Amino acid sequence: MPELHDLIKAGIKITEKIQNIPFSVLIKATTNFEICPLDLRDKQDIEFLEQITTSANNFIKFVRRTHQRFEGRRINEVGRRIEEVFVEELKKTKVIPTQLKSSGYPDIKIVDQFGRTSYLESKAVSTDWESSLRSFYYTSGKKIDSSGRHLLIAWDISNESGNYWIVKGWKLIDLANLEITTKLEFQSNNQKLYESALILAES
C-alpha cells in the first residue's frame, strides 16, 4: 500500500511542524469560532469573572463545611463529581451553566447575564503543578457552537484514603493565550483489538 505508506509519513511530518500554536488559532481552525480573551478593563468581563470566582470560593466553603469527599478510582472520575457540585454553585449566581455530557473539551457551557457565551473546562489536579506531563487535551470542537471566552478551572485535590479525595483550592485560567503542541496518535478500540480473527488463544 504505497499510497497509505506515504500518507502516514506525511501525517507524521505535518504533526512535527504543528507545535506551540495558539489555542485560539486551533479553535478558529476547527470550529470557525473566535476565542474572546477576558478583558479585566471591561465591566461585563469583570462581573462575569466575579460570578465564577464567587462560585469557586463558595464551593470550597461548602466542601470544608460539610467535610465532603469525592470518590473515584481515576482522577477524571473525581473531576466529574467535583464538576457536578460546582455547577450547582454556578446556578446560584447570575450565569446559566450547562454541563456538556459527551466527552472531550469543553465540560461546561455558560451564558452570562449579558447573554454572552463562555466555555469552561473543569479539571482535577493531583500532581505537581509544574509537571511536564500532558494534562490538557483537545480533539475536536464539536461542542463549541459560538465565539466566546474559554476558561479552565483547576481543582487542587489530594488523596485522603482509598478512593476518597479532598479539594484544597482552585486556579482559574484564561485559555486565550495558551500554546498547544500536537502528538500524532494511532489508536484502536476493544471491538477491533479483540475480534475473533486476531485472537491466538484464550482461557
Helix fraction by DSSP (H/I, runs of at least 4)? 25-40%
Mean pLDDT: 91
Low-confidence runs of at least 5 consecutive residues: none
Q: Identify the strand order in the major beta sheet.
A: 2-7-6-5-4-3
Any idea what the CATH architecture is?
A: 3-Layer(aba) Sandwich
Give the biggest beta sheet: 6 strands, mixed
At the third CATH level, what is the topology name? ECO RV Endonuclease, Chain A
Q: Which band does the percent of strand residues land in?
A: 15-25%
Shape: globular
Explain this structure.
It is a single chain. The protein is an alpha+beta fold and 203 residues long. The protein has one domain: ECO RV Endonuclease, Chain A (3-Layer(aba) Sandwich). It contains 5 helices and 8 strands. The strands form 2 sheets. A 6-stranded mixed sheet has the order 2-7-6-5-4-3. A two-stranded antiparallel ribbon has the order 1-8. Helix 3 packs across helix 4 (75-90). The model has no long low-confidence stretch (mean pLDDT 91).
